[in-house]
Amino acid sequence: MSFLPSSPVSVFLATARAEEAKNFYADVLGLTLREDTPFAVVFDLHGAELRISKVPEFKPFPWTVLDWQVPDITDAMSDLAKKKVEFARFGGIEQDENGIWTTPDGAAKIAWFKDPDGNVLSVSERKDPC
Q1: Among 3, 11, 25, 42, which residue has the fewest nearby CB atoms (within 10 Å)?
Q2: What pTM was computed for the model?
Q3: What is the pLDDT of residue 1?
Q4: Of the CATH numbers 3.10.180.10, 3.40.50.720, 3.30.465.10, 3.40.640.10, which one belongs to the domain with range 64-126?
Q5: Highest CATH level, class, for 8-54
């Protein structure tokens, strides 16, 4: 299947709160809205398609579903905090006073937050971006 590496990609999330999700991803995160249909709210995700499917009920996964690799995590968190984003804390991992977890090898710093449906999102600063 040699066509897959060069084919456009869609990333899927779900929402039971479509209007709130649309506002969060557009106004808070600053993503460009492509379309709002009866089935999904669709955004541009740095050249990929983020399709947030409208569903009647939704239970989010307890792990990260979307991460933005940023050059400076402190700056990214500051920008998000100005838009009233609250950062999540999780038991079992050591996070600093700002909610940042540093990987044991020091190669990445990660901070988590949630969208209106409880999807776990994150920003990460990596020494060697993927």
Answers
A1: 3
A2: 0.92
A3: 59
A4: 3.10.180.10
A5: alpha beta
